[in-house]
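thought: fold this chain, then report.
action: predict
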Amino acid sequence: MAWSRYQLGLAALMLLTGSINTLAAKWADNFSATGCGGTEEHSFQHPFLQAVGMFLGEFSCLGVFYLLVWRDRRKPEPSMAPSQPFSPLLFLPPALCDMTGTSIMYVALNMTSASSFQMLRGSVIIFTGLLSVAFLGRRLELSQWLGILVTIVGLVVVGLADLHSSHDQKHKLSEVITGDLLIIMAQVVVAIQMVLEEKFVYKHDVHPLRAVGTEGFFGFIILALLLVPMYYIPAGSFSGNPRRMLEDALDAFCQIGHRPLIALALLGNISSIAFFNFAGISVTKEISATTRMVLDSLRTLVIWAVSLALGWETFHGLEILGFGVLLMGAALYNGLHRPLLTLLPRRRGEEDTGAAEREGLLRGESTAINHGEN
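observation:
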């Protein structure tokens, strides 16, 4: 069935804003400017402040939700179901996971390329699958186990590509390895977040925009408050600011004052995460969760192409191979191979079974409340 203009617009919006989200964060990292007190020019490395901005973008989804509710109530026949009573504190544990995972990923983004950052985030499949078996009592199909194994192979290939490209970039080999490991470590936290949402949040039938916005509220408030003690915690060479503290928000604002383009990059990151969450949720509702997964994979390709065009990284054939293997792993895990198998010649008696499987796949689609949007 052909997509409507509205569906095409949603798909394009999700692909565009999802790509801008990572590219804007990396663009901010690439700036150098003088800090407070006339310190010498240095890179803009403020991952925790950037994470606060990301949560501000998620928090804005709460405003969009209440705007939709207001518009719906003005209609003669409201279409939105009334919200079920629930405690907002249900979102606190997932928000803490989101806060931890996002902060780790922004630290890692300072150490590796934008394309590798996006590709390695595909490792979330591995940990989500294993944790869903351990804590949700799910039984993975053979194709899902195969998808996990293929994804592991893809991660190895991308890691080898990073080791090869580290000689041509400003990042040291040790930084690249550390950054890649941090990204994979963050996916463990993201997988825990997804399992928590599945176990405790989905059963309350909370509107996805309200869920994203509530998690964003908790993440924004808590991490913004944590910026104060971070200003006094020594981090040594791990830190990128002149004072060598875990985070120096004042230095970040001074750098923004000297290089206003940094503010534009941060604004792009904040606004894109809000639109990306809205578009992703709408794509799942209007088209399918499988389409959302495909678009999420395509944005990796867009990020890589733009990074090459801007000269942020150099071309390596291993990255193409790694991306292809990771895409294959995601396709197997999410059941994309099933529609392809229906195209193969089969006996008449098997056709009804295939149709039932396709219908079951569509009914069984689900996606995390907040995936990404980082």
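thought: worth noting. The radius of gyration is 21 Å.
final: tokens above.
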